[in-house]
Records
---
Amino acid sequence: MLGKFSFKAYRRTFPLPYQTSGRVWREREGYIVRFDKGDGRFGYGEVAPIPIFGTETLFAARAFLQEFTEDPSIDLPIDLPCCCFGVASSMHSNAAQRRDYPIAGLLPAGHKALELATVKVANGYRTLKWKVGVLNLVDEQAILHDLFNKTPDTVVFRLDPNGSWSEQEFVQWINFLQPFRHRIDFIEQPLPVNKELIMAELVAQSGLDIALDESLNGLEGTRWLCEWKGPLVIKAPLMGDLDSLVERLRPRAKQIVFSSVFETGVGLLNTLQLADALPEMNRAIGFDTSIFLDKLNISIGKPLLAISDRINISPDYIWKQLPDLS
Ligand SMILES: [Mg+2]
């Protein structure tokens, strides 16, 4: 591997702490890799580790990037999936046809979802994702009932408890949702990692679609990427080398739901390159996450990410916003 690489670090603060079940996000850190193509143009890739999702640490990523920028002939190690993704993305030249992508609107946990759902629907969103497993089950079911009533029948929901439900709670939800099956796009990772066989059994009984998310993390997740029949939530920047990722995901393209890891505009463009290479992928993508107030993203703020929107995302500009490494 030859060429000249450099990298910079970013650290972003969530304007308000962002709550998912079992976790409050306050800061997001990562690296942007720049590949000098030698003709005045540059390629960019994002390295955005989340160690609790089975990736390398920031420290390990930085140590590798330091070494790699000094000697780009060293191999990309598969145990550093985010580095593999970012470096490979910086060298990738997109030959696939670009497409527009529908975006699923993101609702906050709890009662706040009600107000925002109406706004999102008025803005044209037809798929809404709601984080659950934050309040108690009875309260969340009451809110969801209101959400169904306040939105047209054609709007569908993704429920995401981030693996926090017990089996008993999951069964209670399945029973509750039976009359509303047409309003549910899927339930995302209802049970914790290692409960995949139980989820598969309940899928068969319930007729609801169940997506895997956390179960796909790390090397263990490879099995479910191949074997799971329902939707697959893919956080591309955590999943290794871009080119081999295209080959791994191609047979599963119709099941794929690309999802944000709170990356910058660089990571978004990297993921869209991957999506472009999988023309059968047809589900709304989970990128309604431009919540940061810095200049490392554009705010999309609408239910369709059009080809023309990508022109507004400038990796050169993002790079210039970042300080040199100290
Ligand atoms: Mg999820």
---
Amino acid sequence: MKEYHKNDFDGNLVYGGKTYHGLTGRIDVITDVNESDEFEKHNISDKDLETLKQCPMCNGEEINEFIRKKRLKVYRCNSCDFGFLNPRVKKESSFKLYDQSSRYESLYLNETSNKLDKIKFQYVFQLVKRFISPQSVLDIGSSSGIFLNTCAEEGVQIIHGIEADTSQIKRSPFYQKNFHIETSMDLDLSKKYNNLELVTMFDVLEHIIDFKKTLTEIHLSLAKQGIFAIIVPNFYSLASRIIRDKSPTFNIEHTNYFSMKNLIPLLETLGFEIVHKETVISEISNIKNYLEFNDPYFAEPKNEQWTNFLTPEWIHENLLGSRLFVIARKKQKD
Ligand SMILES: [Zn+2]
């Protein structure tokens, strides 16, 4: 199988930002996130909201408003740098965020998105294989099933997925008959799974209020030396640092905003050993557009010469990419 580089699935680099956002329908998604009142759209009232007085990562009490976008407020903890929506939608009301047909639906069936996702997941699998040749996998939030499909192509025998959006499971061509797919987002995983060799979670943990419990359940359901691979938005990406409230990463569905500074110690505390960490997705066109006084997403950068120092390599060397990608191994207890 072809060896891939992370730049091969970086839409800004493969197509140029403007073309990429057009081809994938992201222009509509970004406009929607940035222009609409997300509370109104999802019919969220005060009784659906809770205000936090402490950091949900470290329980620190020194928390401050950090980013504001219309009525949406993201707070940051001074001790651990964790970011969180505050107020946030309570767990029991969170179904309201997902009950209408998802704003991302157009992305699931999009040819360009699927093409890049296939490469992304082959890249992920290629890295996972450095540590394990898994015979079983569970992908939490399996979306259009592309990662599970990749696993099947790579010879993984036992394939489990969890995806609450049943329309995706029906419509996506990537699900195969022999996949075991659960449609309830009940994440008491250890009741149902054990001895899994690989558990994955791509762009999911930022949505989950009790993220520590979910990670604990993942740890319990893994085999000894089992591998957990996670991709999650990077709160401190260069794009977010520059574009701030205009970045679509700040939205009502994202209740948690992680950085390597807090994700790594969290995983270690829960009994994982980190075997690989990096950032992926440079957002380089978006950054350059903004620095050239243009709309970050809907323009094509002129690549003014002074911006030449901004390369994908420089961005990722400094862990400033748009996503954190971490591979962790369940530590052997003796
Ligand atoms: Zn904290």
---
Amino acid sequence: MEPEIDLAAFKKIGMIQQKQKEYFAMRLRTVGGDLTAPQLKKISEIAEKYGKGEVHLSTRQGLEIHNVHHTNLEKARLELEPAGIYMGACGPRVRIVVACPGEATCRWGIIDTKILAAELDKKYFREDTPHKFKLSVTGCPHNCAKATENDIGVMGALLPRWIASFCNDCQLCVNICPTKAIERLEDKTAKTKKPGYILRKKKCINCSICTLSCPANSWVIAIKGYNLFIGGTMGKIPRLGTILKKLITSKEELHALIEKSLRYYQREGRKKERFGHMIDRIGWVKVKEELLHGKQG
Ligand code: SF4
Ligand code: SF4
Ligand code: SF4
């Protein structure tokens, strides 16, 4: 007689039972979607040896080997580990952290997404939560890693400043700003007799388009940091993340706010209630106040 399968224990480490009940999907732990070439070779080898020679890419940068018979799961896991490939997570807990390439390779990148994603993964991966809990780090407001669709979403952000003396009045910035946050003001009374450019801070979404596009380097970075969104989710009841704080300049403060947010959810969230839905139940004003100014978070 075959031993009984502990489905809950399997699910916790990302071994997910398929509709073909004897077969499982092995969800692997990736951080920011990064794997080395030798790791990919090993995964391919294991997929051929224990699966059907197929690998599935999930919508959150996860990598799964499908169609592994339950009697081969442990053997496959043990053969993956020496290559630094570990099992992922499923069910009500912290999942893998997704990230875009960020400033490492992307021209628009404002922050190092990979380092931050690795830090968050190290701190929180697989912690139990009332429902699934997803984190994302995206390098700028282009939002390629969909920070606003995750329970915690960190977005690289900056505030620009205009230096009058460099400007050649080409007006590119006015046309290129996606939210029309830059205005050209013709002030004939000014000493320079040159038009001025002003930033409407309320309209600015903190991207890097003006600072990277100005041909005269007239828009420079005044503040660089992180915008933190909480409570985003897709699924059956979608909800975009709400901004908890803009332009956080200290990484320590960012980590502290994420820590407070997660602990608050672990304490106050109801079983099978997503973080964003908990926020809506309690009320944004109260949640924001407690996270930004409360002792416990
Ligand atoms: S979010 Fe920004 S930094 Fe990240 S990949 Fe997209 S454009 Fe590049
Ligand atoms: S793009 Fe640069 S140089 Fe051109 S108007 Fe704007 S600030 Fe001036
Ligand atoms: S940072 Fe982006 S949104 Fe803000 S002024 Fe520059 S281009 Fe416009």
---
Amino acid sequence: MRTAYKCRAYPAPEQAAVLNRTFGCVRMVWNQVLAWRTERYRADKTRTSYAESDRYLTRLKKAEDLAFLNEVSSVPLQQALRHQSAAFANFFAGRAGHPRFKSRDGRRSASCTRSAFRMRDGELFLAKMPGALRLVWSWPGVDLTTLDPTSVTVSRDADGRWYVSLAVDTDDPVPLARTGERVGVDLGIKDFAVTSDGERFANPRHLQRKQRNLARYQRRMARKCKGGANRKKAARKVAAAHGKVRRAREDFLHKTTTRLCRRYDVIVIEDLNVTGMVRNRRLATHISDCGWGAFRTMLEYKAARWGRRLVVIDRWFPSSKTCSHCGHLLSRLDLGTRHWTCPDCGTRHDRDVNAAQNILAEGLSVPACGADVRRTGKPRPRSAAKQETPRSDPGRTRGRRP
Ligand SMILES: [Zn+2]
């Protein structure tokens, strides 16, 4: 299994200068080659292989105005092209969007394979960089001095923090012992997640506070002149606030997904069409902040790592409106209704727990061996969309400006 350990790095000024120059070259090469191969594809549908892009890089390095590309290690530049080839492979396979140009302001990174770094007694040396890079190791269970990374990625976030990520090949993890427990998870906006056992994962409050700070810094930045020094300072504060929100959210998602995977053998979630829902303006900020996409990704890899089964069910399944006790289907259930009583069997329901129980039952009806976890059989009516989707308000949801 491949895994990676990420920790903070604190480069000395002259090291930071080398790394910044490398980042600039990586970005330049990425963008130049991306433009070139996009143009080739547009002209006559030619797809560019890694080897071809590498030859193009050699041509770039010979150009007079790009001679500075020779001043940095060539390995990160080639790695960037390998990543770009992988990004295009994903794009052509329909797994990802079209690779984008890298902007000056975002996260910057450079990757090295074994030929361009050396680890000795837990110290990291990079090609063309003076001295060892100072790391603060934050993995108490892992001995840095015995680590044998296959590649190293140095990155700098928009808020100026430096990181090193060490990719290593490790033994496959031992699956966790079976617990005999199964769970359905309903994702929502009021609570981040509610389980069929009645457990609630509330959206953390400190996250909301950090989000308000972020919004305030963004407003402040918007008032400064473009291109000015004050704008730059304000942008740094926005980036720092962004980083805080992102790290807090990641932390919350990691804890939640780890807890679910430790506790349950089978986890059932709904396939929320996150991008489709984010298109709705009113809910967009809420949903983007929730991180449902990241939640699913983390569950997927943690379930695979620990031998758990993750079932993703059809997103049009009317989980909220169906009575989990008798199967009665309500014709409507308003978003504000948190509790309801089934008119058929008289069971009193908590809206979210009932939905989670339905999700669990639906997930368990999927055969365990099937690679396709989507529900087969008769399609359910599309009008029975998940209730957390706001009632359609076509004027506002799409196209027209408010
Ligand atoms: Zn009922």
